[in-house]
Specification:
The protein is about 30% helix and about 20% strand. By secondary structure, the protein is α+β, with helices and mostly antiparallel strands. Strands 1, 2, 3, 4, 6 and 7 form a 6-stranded antiparallel sheet that branches. Strand 11 and strand 12 (about 210-215) form a beta hairpin. Helix 3 (about 70-90) crosses helix 5 (about 170-190).
Length: about 575
């Protein structure tokens, strides 16, 4: 501590770069050790990366709070939220330029994700955060820095990283709620389900930009229809009654504004665990469920879209289809095939965000436009083949295409946010009002092919430096290229986007992307590295551990690679 005070006193009033004297150093405080992993070179640059490490003998977290692994992830999430909350309680009388005096941490949302903001084991707890080192203009404010690090920081650490100072009941509720979700999710496949929605769940959100639950007095709690209701058992919550969505082809129908898309959106995001009070903490979906939509303008590189599209004009190849500006139908076809290539077991589709000509071709259009003039085999003719041949289920929100009644295994009708099973009614309607359309697909879905990314087509360098920068959840800068993530709607945190970029760079550095392994093999190998060594293993500099990564799913990593406009793949034959 004294050495740190001496340095701050010595550099007081000097140019801002004098703060660099702290980089790479650590300083012992009575209750913790402070590390300066990276020091910003300018008050207007991104804040400095710091960490505090508290010995477990003082932090005092019981073993059952961080074992097994899901509890370690959840405890780290809880401590991250605790530090963020404590920062919000600091009296802010900001002085100086840029981010002077600010403490920041990788702020979690409603999801509980594996992060690098808190690392812990039986020996210590380490919290990684950001601090704006104080300056007036570009002159160091040493006395303000001393106040920040010697007065404010110890209080933050004491109130957020010491078990004795936390609400243990609240902490263990956090752990148990997440653990129950893991157990619920594991019971899906053994019960033949793709998803489960518990009674009492609050699915609507405050707004499109606020993922907190709608206030209870404004929301309608979910209630399972009796003919789809079942009970699943949780270690902490006991028997939980709710609606199981079976494997196969499920339609969600109903009038506008009655909750169809709200239910689907809840399923999309229930691949993740949610915090207590979120309203969706007992809603779980198959962890490999993937949202599919049309994506006009995306680049596609040698994807076998022939199960859906063939005989294109000018003899364009659909066995190895490439486009720099794919249409709605070709992009949606490519999105499905790419999802299958990387192991998706459930497709989630909303009619509103799909290409109409990809989803349906009715009898009247079949009569007017002969099949030999139409290259698209619509999804309606492939959806049951997907389930039969590839063991891939589909959940579809349908508002206008009643032709899907003929092939649905389950039909749910949403009315005022309450579901009702109407499968038999839909089948009766299909019998009484036949659609007279002809099935246009072959007898099977068709096989997949192996696509091998070529490493020379992926360049993360900008001039002479690797550059990876998340643009919220909607984009990722990789070198000179911008990867559009806007339509990957299951990426929920900028830290996931950031981690995706670093995972791609790691795969290049370690020659996992070697020109021989296909995309699924690449992402599986990345998963093995992270499972063994933690998410921080992909950090570019071991001497500067990062606290701003959140773990993405492998499918989103693959999807980002697929959207890189320079990507070249070799197709294995």
């Amino acid at each position: 501590m004294e050495r740190l005070k001496q340095i701050l006193s010595k550099i007081n009033g000097k140019g801002y770069k004098a703060y660099k004297e702290l980089q790479g150093k650590s300083f012992k405080f009575p209750d913790f050790e402070l590390w300066f992993y990276h020091v910003q070179g300018d008050p207007f640059a991104a804040p400095s990366q710091l960490a505090v490490r508290v010995p477990q003998q003082w932090a005092g977290f019981p073993l059952e709070s961080y074992q097994p692994k899901i509890r370690k992830i959840t405890l780290a999430d809880y401590l991250t939220r605790s530090f963020y909350s404590q920062v919000g309680k600091l009296p802010r009388q900001k002085q100086g330029s840029g981010k002077s005096g600010d403490f920041q941490i990788d702020r979690p949302g409603q999801e509980v994700l594996e992060r690098t903001s808190v690392m812990l084991n039986e020996h210590w707890v380490e919290l990684r955060f950001f601090a704006g080192m104080p300056a007036a203009g570009r002159r160091i404010l040493g006395h303000e820095a001393e106040k920040m690090l010697f007065d404010e920081l110890p209080k933050l650490v004491l109130n957020s990283l010491f078990y004795a100072n936390l609400n243990s009941g609240d902490l263990f509720t956090h752990l148990k709620v997440v653990e129950d979700q893991e157990v619920l999710r594991r019971q899906l496949s053994e019960n033949g389900l793709v998803a489960f929605v518990a009674d009492g769940s609050i699915l609507p959100r405050k707004s499109g930009v606020d993922q907190r639950p709608l206030a209870p007095e404004k929301a309608i709690a979910f209630e399972a229809p009796s003919d789809l209701a079942l009970e699943l058992k949780c270690p902490h919550g006991g028997n939980i009654r709710g609606m199981g969505i079976p494997e196969g082809v499920t339609l969600i129908v109903g009038g506008g504004y009655h909750g169809k898309s709200t239910l689907l959106r809840s399923l999309e995001l229930s691949i993740y665990n949610h915090i207590p009070g979120d309203g969706r903490e007992r809603v779980v979906a198959n962890p490999n469920a993937f949202k599919i939509r049309a994506e006009d303008g995306r680049r596609v590189e040698k994807v076998k879209i022939s199960p859906f599209i063939s005989n294109l004009p000018l003899k364009k190849d659909t066995q190895k289809f490439s486009s720099d500006d794919a249409s709605g139908s070709t992009s949606q076809a490519a999105n499905i095939i790419e999802a299958l290539e990387t192991g998706s077991q459930v497709l989630l589709i909303d009619e509103d965000t799909s290409a109409t000509n990809f989803m349906i071709r009715d009898a009247r259009m079949q009569m007017l436009v002969a099949k030999e003039q139409e290259p698209i085999t619509p999804f309606i003719d492939k959806v049951q083949q997907l389930y039969r041949d590839q063991d891939v289920s589909t959940v579809l929100v349908i508002g206008g295409a009643g032709d899907y009644f003929d092939l649905a295994d389950t039909v749910l009708m949403m009315g005022k946010y309450r579901p009702r099973l109407v499968t038999e009614e839909a089948r009766d309607i299909a019998c009484q009002h036949p659609n007279y359309r002809k099935q246009e697909a072959g007898t099977n879905f068709g096989g997949l092919q192996e696509r091998v990314p070529q490493p020379e087509s992926i360049n993360p360098y900008r001039k002479n430096n690797v550059q990876v920068k998340a643009q919220g959840v909607e984009g990722l800068q990789l070198g000179y290229e911008n990867i559009d993530l806007h339509y990957l709607e299951q990426i929920m945190d900028p830290s996931q986007a950031r981690a995706i970029g670093e995972m791609i760079c790691y795969a290049l550095r370690k020659k996992i992307i070697d020109g021989q392994q296909n995309l699924k093999e690449i992402i599986e190998q990345l998963e093995q590295v992270i499972d063994k060594n933690g998410l921080e293993a992909v950090s570019p500099n071991p001497q500067q551990p990062r606290g701003d990564f959140a773990r993405p799913r492998p499918m989103e990593v693959a999807a980002a690679i697929n959207r890189l406009r320079t990507l070249i793949v070799r197709v294995k034959t």
